[in-house]
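Query form — protein HNH endonuclease

QUESTION: What is the three-dimensional structure of this chain?
INPUT:
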Amino acid sequence: MRTNVRPTKPTKRQRTRCGLCGKRRLTTEEHVVPKNLYAPTRRRGKTHWIVIAACSECNNGTTDDDVHLRFVLALAGQSNQAVKELWETKITGSLRRRDGLRRAQDVYAIMRPVSGSTDHMIYPANDPRVLKSVRKIVRGLARHHGLPWPVHDAQVIADVLRGPELLDVVSDGFSYGHVQSDIFEYHYLPVVGEEGLHSVWFIHFFERTTFRAVVFQTVEDCQRAWATALDAAPIRQHS
Ligand SMILES: [Zn+2]
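ANSWER: The structure tokens for HNH endonuclease are given below.
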């Protein structure tokens, strides 16, 4: 069932509907933006966490993906101060742990050499685990903002925004939010009644890596949009 009920602030542990799958279960607080993206000094004071109630099935089992997401985002581009502090306090240490080599290999798999240079670039869009984490953040934000829910993972298409600057694609109608603007910012636009669309999102990490996500009203609407995009692809190649 889809409703427009505003989310209540979750307590530590309660029996209620999960903000992600919508099932009535024992839930705990889920941090929509993974806490590990914040270096220790950035976790104090002014940070306003975005939390929703989520069941253990939706909430657990993503810790490893969250660490991977942090590693990929920390490597993808010019470091700002927030990333530098994260490297110094958290990431270097995590690579020394037992699974550090595996983590490095996971990231190496999505690096590509830059032609005419010894540099390598990292491509978060080539990493299914990163995109899944991004979709989960968008689903959580949709719940946080009281949009129709639950939003299933298969209702969301996410990709890296390449080319245009964020401010060129975000128009007046978009709402803005952030959890410390140099770490995580987002713009979103609820869309009602157009081609099965639910909402459009741009989420921006560390002032440089932007993902766009489109949420559809149903899984079928999402699949139809994929099929249309695939049909159109050969035409675009010839134009
Ligand atoms: Zn759930």
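ADDITIONAL NOTE: The beta strands are 13-17, 24-31, 51-55, 111-113, 120-122, 156-160, 175-178, 184-190, 197-205, 209-216.
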